[in-house]
Give the backbone structure.
Amino acid sequence: MNPLIAQIAAHSPGLRDWLALTSVIFSIGLYGLLTRRNAVGILMAVELMLNSAAMNFVIFNRFCLPARMDGSVMAIFVIAVAAAEVVVGMAIFVALYRYRGTVDVNQMNTMQDPVISIEGPGDFNREVMKNINKQYKSRHDH
Amino acid sequence: MLMLPEIIVVVTAMAVLVADLFLTERLRMGVTWLSLAGLAVAAGAVFATPMNGSMFGGQFVVDAVGWWFKLFFVISGFFTVLLSMDLLHGRTTCRMRGIGSPGEYYTVLLFTISGMMYLVSARDMVLLYVSLELATIPLFALAAWRREDIRSGEAGLKYVIVGALASAFILYGLGLIYGLTGQISLDAARVLKGSPAFWFAAAMLTAGIGFKLTLVPFHLWAADVFEGAPMPITAYLSVASKGTGLAFMFQLFFRMMGGWVHDWALMIALFAAVTMTLGNCVAIVQHNIKRFMAFSAISHAGVFIMGFLGPHDYGVPAMLFYLLAYIASTLALFAGIVWYSNETGRETIRDYRGLSRTNPLMALAMMLALFSLAGIPPLSGFVGKFFLFSVAAGAGFHWLVGIAAVNSTIALYNYLRIVREMYIEPVHEDGPAAPASWSLSITTAVLTTALVLLGIIPFFYNAINGSTIAWLSAVLPH
Amino acid sequence: MTTEIDIQHLGFAMRHAWLVPAFPLVSFVLVALFIRPLSQRFSAVVATLAVFSSWVVACAIACEYYRLCPPGGEHPVLVPWAFEWLRYQPGFTVNVGVIVDPISVLLMLVVTTVSTLVHIYSSGYMKGDPGYGRFFAYLNLFTFSMLGLVAAPNIVQMYVFWELVGVSSFLLIGFYYQKPSAVSASKKAFIVTRFADLGFLIGVLTLGYFAFNLFGATAPAVSARTAAHCTMPLQPMDFLYLTSPEFLAKFGALAAGSTGITLLTVAMVLVFMGAAGKSAMFPLHIWLPDAMEGPTPVSALIHAATMVVAGVYLVARMFPAFAVSGAALLVVAYVGAFTSLFAAVIGTTQDDIKRVLAFSTLSQLGYMMLALGVATMDSPLGYTASMFHLFTHACFKALLFLGAGSVIHAVHSNEIWDMGGLRKKMPITHITFLIATLAISGFWPLSGFFSKDEILASALANGHTFIFGLALFVAGLTAFYMFRIYLVTFWGDFRTDKAHHAHEAPPLMWIPLVILAVLSVVAGYVPMGKFVSIGVEHAEHHGINFAIAIPATIAALLGTGTALLLYTGSGSRADAIARSLGGVHTLIKQKFYIDEVYLFITHRLIFNLVSRPIAWFDRAVVDGSMNASAWATRASGYLFSWMQTGQVQSYSAWFACGAMLVLLVLWAALI
Amino acid sequence: MIASAIYTVLFYAIAAGTILLALAVVNTRKLLRAAVALMGALSTTAGLYAMLDAQFLAGVQVLVYVGGIVVLIVFAIMLTRSGELLEDNPTLKRKLVGAVISIGFLVSSVGAVWGSPFAIASAGKAPANDALMIGKALLDYGPGGFVVPFEVISLLLLAAMLGGIVIARKTPPTGQPFTSGGDLPGEAEVYHPLSQRDDETGGRAS
């Protein structure tokens, strides 16, 4: 037997390797959710996350109790839930696009907490106000 | 027949959907009657079901706590329908475009109620997860229901993105628990020893709970979604969705991680302290009443979870009772807010000025509701808070009780802002012209009476207390 | 000798003691909802009749109580009527009921009497006001809350009505809601007292927690002693239990940490914080002068005679607990003494007649607290004296306020320098005001003399010489500032046209004045020691103790003399010229001299050196710290609302960070 | 042995492919390309399912996910015209925040998984006919069956569909976007946060 093949076979993926893979995919999805600017893109990232979470169930099913089908059934349900989520999300985005002309999440900030002057004593207040105004402006610069 | 209430709600939803197809525009009100009747019958069915029992080989279980939760969900659904009907059928002075489709609206609403009811009966992760999503995903649609209002759409967008994130986190956590126990059942996890994966899963699940229950820092979606959603949905979110969060927390913390609740008391106490403080502080600076109510709901979430700290035979009935008091007070308040927004289309706190002169009864009801939320004796909110505070004190969290007491002062100041507008400021020159419709009047009258009676008649608390003690002695390790 | 009382077979009034608060409550609902829209006039009649009925029942209860427990004997606490309100768990129930003992009977009588008179007075005073009916509804609400507070047999009911009293006071101070100053004053009153109530609440929770924990061990003994006097079983939150020696002995032994302070002291100081808020003790007094923005009858009822004594009542009610924790009692004594001095000094410089009276109220409340503070269970003379002073003070201070209201009604101004010479225009107001002034200054044979005397005696008897001296000085100051406003208002020339055209108030307004004047004269002859007592030894203060009466009278005379010297000379030019016929030069010189002295003493010395720093301290530090905490809360609101950027991705980032944070907490806590 | 080696190589190859495709999903500036990458990532996941002896699930994954959901996403891209545009790049700050959080998640989750004892079954092979097993489990109303969630998920899909239809339905064009609150930019009552005075302290009582 070729020692290389033996070596490779000895590195046959165990439970932890599989779980590390799903962790990586989940993290990538999380990164996408936090950075994508297009709402549809964010939803795609969410799909990655749900997909990797569902895969966790299948992995555990395979490694921990192969005799039953609970994990696989859960994965099927997750796929269905993901479908429902996408349906509602897409409907909302399409409706929003119709009236806003964009689905860029950075511009979805008509609702936020207003920044108002704090009536307070002395210089401290003025400093606070200056900072807040600066930040307010930066919030609206895109 | 244990599942009867759920079946009635689902059948009502289907019937509403079908009826909507066949009813003419003139008879369209029929769907409202159908929904109301269905929910009333479902409430009766909840009363008829026994407080313990299981079906489908233990897949679907009814116990005392679940029984009360189901009753609360049906009640809040019933009043949400009453709050929605004027808006949906266009019987408002201020014509709102972009809200309609009453048949679909009620159907979706009823589906979410059935989802909540399944949630409290779930005994395995699959039903837990699926019913949680049934109670959540359609709400994204309801928040975005007014498709021509850009704020409504934006609310839907924010809700769907944060909701999907929370859903993924919950799923990840459940997956790890499944791997650790090797079983899909919730009860199996109670014997788990601590391990990094378990703690990681617990953190993920806590984040998911935090999303539903609006705990800080998972609360940020709430203000924007509350502001953008149609007014009755805002009311529904602040009571039923909060109840779902609490039920979900019950399921996870008592059933799944029952052996750990005491060890995590410090974390829960920290959450309670931060959540109520932040909610109350930020509420001070709000002008829009929907945003204000969002932060009010957030701070109440902090009060609710204080019930997890103490000995559970005090904590659980206290939480359930406070949930009931909170539902009555919040919905009574929202009846006034819905009425005002229906009549004038305005929704800032300043707009309520002088309401006590133009509509003294509505102002009185709103004042009572606000005082109850603020915890002024002898209204029900005070009694509920009193119980929860003493639970926390009994568990030795005196600092938390101190923080909670400071917070109730800030909260009182917040709620008094609205009372002051209504009672002390000069009358709004362009206030609502028409009195409240009969549906809103009934809602206000019933709920205001309830919030007063709950506080002064000990019967309700005794009933909750008496029925949950047996459940607790069975479910909790001692 | 223990009085045998059959709690199940009492007379009608005792069995139906709930009628006392019930009348105003029913009337409030009727007036607010139904009568007010129909007839303003009728609202006043119904409201007044309701309070009068309460007075009748209160009188009947008093008669029956003292028939069962004759004066001079032992005065047990009765709870003749109660029902179960909150059952927290078996053995921990909170009842609603009526407590009947000497101090609650006294307070019920005071509240219903003053309230009835104020109702009558208001029906004249408020005539023509658009909020006439609303005013009476609020007055009834207040009377109900106050009676409920007085009747509370447990601390939870007390707290509930405590808050209700706060709410109704808030409504009444802000009655003229068109006036921004009234609105801000009502807000201030509410926030400050609410802040104080926070301490009270924490104190109640602390007490309740330990009361419940120690209940099993100590309750049976207490219960055996008191069961015959109560209709319901003893509960942990009942005053009977909280003030029982058995409980206090156990609780007083618990130390708070390693500080050497007992938990009892901590709890009692917290409770006193609530009392200090309601009774406007330094530094929580800042709301009371501003509260004068409310209608004058309200000031007479709430901010002079009834609500502000709730704090004194609370301390008296919990007196055994305070007495066991000596430190807490000392806090009470010194806070009371300091407040009485502080307020009296400020009172000498105010020009608004109601503000002077407000500061005078503060000062007298400080007196009552001081009297409680110097009492002990063995030598409870101060306790009796405090209740005695509460009683007499209610009479003459209500009279002063109502008289001031009558003057303000006539002159349409609060400034004393806008008045003058009113003695000819308003003879009845003048005479009654004079009686009240003499009474508060402590002149024999009026009521203030006796009660003040007893307070001074109690301070001296228990060895608090410093407090005695201070109280004596305050007595002099009291006479000074009271005569100052009396002289400026009623003597001298008419300073304005309005004063010139003033005329006597209508009968509806002066009849209560006359009744109160009669009460102010005779109230001092009530042998209070026989009626109100605590502890084993009976506090008796027979006759007049000349060792105390003489210095007190001298102090009062000195104060009065200074006022006469300063305010008649410069005020009435005509008299001065009449006297100057002998030598104009010396007269001018002397007048110049008096003016200088006056200016120097009041404006330079007192104002600059004492009052102004105190006022500054008041505004900048005490008031300022309240404002600063409010500001800090708001600022933190803005700070936290900064998280609400409207950007969903930053929300998601917070969400994920939160999950990581939870993980860290779990790891840190459990590994 | 050879089979095992092939299995190993296959695993790492597919895993690497999935990770690359996932990275493409979140980083491509053209959304349509991202959608194609997503389709690829989900397909490779199906391959991974097959390697986990869940052949039926792999089929479901391809049919529902790749065939259904991704197509829906592509529709949405078309309807929102996102496909024609180059998506704006996220700001550096946002990228940094995202990277820090996701790497934090990655490190802690891998660490948690590594340090935990999972109940690995030593023996036992997946049943050959997993489709039958799953079908039975879904319709089994005894203990361990999933008939209740199966019914509940149908309600969820129906509700989502209804909601989606109502929201995405076109209403007759009536002109301007509108809102009810009167507190949006462009409305009569302008709600510019900096011009809004605080109602507590501004204007009236001081």
Remarks:
- Helices of chain D lie at 2-27, 31-51, 55-79, 92-114, 130-139, 147-168.
- Chain D touches chain B through 49 residues (CB under 8 Å).
